[in-house]
Design a protein that fits this description.
Domain 6-phosphogluconate dehydrogenase NADP-binding: 4-163
Organism: Roseibium aggregatum
Structural class: alpha/beta
CATH superfamily of the largest domain: NAD(P)-binding Rossmann-like Domain
Order of helices and strands: EHEHEHEHHEHEEHEHEHHHHHH
Shape: elongated
CATH architecture of the largest domain: 3-Layer(aba) Sandwich
Mean pLDDT: 97
Largest sheet: 6 strands, parallel
Number of strands: 9
Distance between the termini: 53 Å
Pathway: Amino-acid degradation; L-valine degradation
InterPro entries: 3-OH-isobutyrate_DH-rel_CS (IPR002204), 6-PGluconate_DH-like_C_sf (IPR008927), 6PGD_dom2 (IPR013328), 6PGDH_NADP-bd (IPR006115), HIBADH (IPR011548), HIBADH-like_NADP-bd (IPR029154), HIBADH-related (IPR015815), NAD(P)-bd_dom_sf (IPR036291)
CATH class of the largest domain: Alpha Beta
CATH topology of the largest domain: Rossmann fold
Number of domains: 2
Strand content: 5-15%
Low-confidence stretches: none
Radius of gyration: 21 Å
Bound molecules: nicotinamide-adenine-dinucleotide
Number of helices: 14
Active site: 172
């Protein structure tokens, strides 16, 4: 059934996600602070909303794809925001990657207004957003998950219910903490192998079928050669930018701090990605950390 969907945050990810909802036959109202983002969305069949309030009042479903927790809290709970203006029963889907505490606080405020909310951060990048092949990690009640599912199915391919409110964000940062740590581990092994005169291809052949195997090695190898499709073969053009990895590692550290979890390697990974980003790695693929560990930017 066609719905009126409001979409706030029409950037690199939100723009193509919103267009996929248009293509599926929904009426989609879009709002963004960037005029260029709104113009691209309107050019692809979307309708421009004059304000968040207008969009929220008209929509059956609101999707948000914003940079960080402060933007999400502002857009939902600020003056003239979604919660002040949407009808009771409106379905709210926040796909931004934000801190777990903000996700849970906004979800509780939405429930107080009798709205149904999921946090549904994604992995899959801009290509996944454009192709409708994103993975969504969803936090919310069973009812909210079932209500969101038809819309998530349009924008994504793999949809996982991770538990109650905030658990989508929890799943995303836990996964990316594993990824950041494992990419550093694999990179250190290749740097050591170079120093010891062990060819990268040999280490790959051995470790990819031995106990050192992991996704960072066998699907995303950080040195050129073994996997022709990995960003290492195109001078570390992303891919998944180091700045985005750092954002997720910082969110994981924030959550570790508030929950009391000990994550010493997560802390070290955040520190190393900070150094890599500060030394020019920001816009490189996160696997480019191998260059930083080698002590050269070449
Ligand atoms: P982006 O900066 O391209 O888009 C964010 C958009 O939000 C911008 O167009 C900006 O103008 C708009 N915006 C900011 N504040 C606003 C406000 N108050 N009102 C209306 N619009 C506002 O970022 P992106 O790459 O699309 O990422 C969005 C989210 O998705 C982030 O949380 C990011 O961490 C997450 N994410 C991104 C990727 C990726 O590969 N780019 C992958 C997974 C998850």
């Amino acid at each position: 059934m066609a719905s009126t969907v409001g979409f706030i945050g029409l950037g690199n990810m939100g723009g193509p996600m919103a267009v996929n909802l248009v293509k599926a036959g929904h009426t989609v109202l879009g709002f963004d602070l960037s005029e260029a983002a709104v113009a691209a969305f309107v050019g692809a069949g979307g309708k421009k909303a004059a304000s968040v309030a207008e969009l929220a009042a008209a929509a059956d479903v609101v999707v948000t794809m914003l940079p960080a927790g402060k933007h999400v809290r502002q857009i939902y709970q600020g003056e003239g925001g979604i919660l002040d203006n949407a009808k009771a029963g409106t379905l709210l889907i926040d796909s931004s990657t934000i801190d777990v505490d903000s996700a849970r606080a906004v979800s509780a405020a939405a429930a107080d207004m009798e709205m149904i909310m999921v946090d549904a951060p994604v992995s899959g990048g801009v290509a996944g957003a454009a192709g409708g092949t994103l993975t969504f990690m969803v936090g919310g009640t069973d009812e909210a998950y079932e209500a969101a599912r038809p819309y998530l199915d349009i924008m994504g391919k793999t949809i996982v219910h991770a538990g109650g409110a905030g658990n989508g964000q929890a799943a995303k940062i836990c996964n990316n903490m594993i990824l950041g740590i494992s990419m550093i581990g694999v990179s250190e092994a290749f740097v050591l192998a170079e120093k010891l005169g062990l060819e990268a291809q040999k280490l790959f052949d051995i470790s990819s079928t031995a106990s050192g195997q992991c996704w960072s090695l066998t699907s995303y190898c950080p040195v050129p050669g073994p996997l022709p499709a990995s960003p290492a073969n195109r001078d570390y053009q992303p891919g998944f930018a180091a700045a985005m990895m750092l954002k997720d590692l910082k969110l994981a550290q924030e959550a570790a701090g508030t929950s009391g979890a000990a994550t010493p390697l997560g802390a070290e990974a955040a520190a190393l990605y900070t150094l890599f980003c500060n030394s020019g790695g920001n816009d490189l693929d996160f696997s480019g950390i191998v260059k930083f560990l080698r002590g050269s930017q070449t």
